[in-house]
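Q: Could you fold this chain for me?
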Amino acid sequence: MPGARIAVTAGSRGIRDLVPVVKAAVDWLRDAGAVPFVTPAMGSHGGATADGQREMLAGLGITAESVGCPIEATMETVVVGTLPDGTEIHHDTLAAKADGVLLVNRVKPHTDFRGPIESGIAKILAIGLGNHRGAAALHAGGIPSLGSNIEAAARMIVAQGKILGGLAILENAEDRTASVELLTADGIAEAAENALLQRASSLLGRLPFDQLDVLVIDELGKDKSGAGMDTNVIGRCWVHGIPEFGSPDIAAISVHSLSTASHGNASGLGLADVIPARLLEQIDLRASYVNALTSGAGGARRSRLPMVMEDDEAAVLAAVTMCGRRHWSELRLARIKDTLSPNELMVTPALLTEAAERFDLEITGTARNLAPAGRLGPWSER
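A: Sure. Below is the predicted structure, expressed as structure tokens.
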């Protein structure tokens, strides 16, 4: 390994400990005599440009200074093979030219489909390092075939002999790192990765209520989920050919801002029903639509614009009006910061009564207005 150039991947998700995990990998490789560099592995995100992807990494804290090595990015790819259906498998040029590749990603249930391999090491290899062309090619066949295509593409790239393995990050229900596991190259897209997925699924944070009239979400973004909001949390998939989730059942969803780390990419906004007008000013339509088109069927309904109201208060009231609840005293409304944090909620009195009878929930704070002066109030009471 002395002198070997090793590419270390970093994706577009807001993984809590992404910076320290990537830095630890870089330090280990350097101590072994290698020459590591970090490369974005995020498909078409960042507006499908190298500069845009570098900016996304910087927004997540991944810089040359923070990880201790250069950040190198390109959208160029090489074709390493073809699937039986004719789909070309693209691989990032920088990764292909490197002496080795170490993959880093969080393993978790996918937002679009169910299968033995979902979001994780195989996905960042097949789609993330496929850049725009590779991600578009794998999504073009529709979501029902996406899982099997990711598996086949990942195995094909592993067979090239340059994949060292992957660092799989598992997070718990509080969005904290539960474990970091080394997945050897021969375990990628195989039973070893499936075992990690099963563990990750058991750890996934979910809303503590199966039925809500209204869910108020402060923020969505690509750093929160590939779909902007984790479909496993909100119970909405909205992809042609994919069955809807059984729970939770939420009548109306309002979303109130786009994360800074998304750099204007509002993919997934169509999963919401109502937004305030100010959110429109945060959207980069080009970045959003490039991502939606690359996702194919996964971007069709999710890229639509929800109903737009003048401010936060009006957006929440619109959601309440459309939720089908006649008596507002019975309104089951909850507010969360984002779908990475479904374990901390503000709730209406109807839910508070239910929560008081639950051993697994703790009630804190005091009653206050949800949206004083038209804007969502702060989470802290101070």
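A (continued): The first strand starts at residue 5 and ends at 10.
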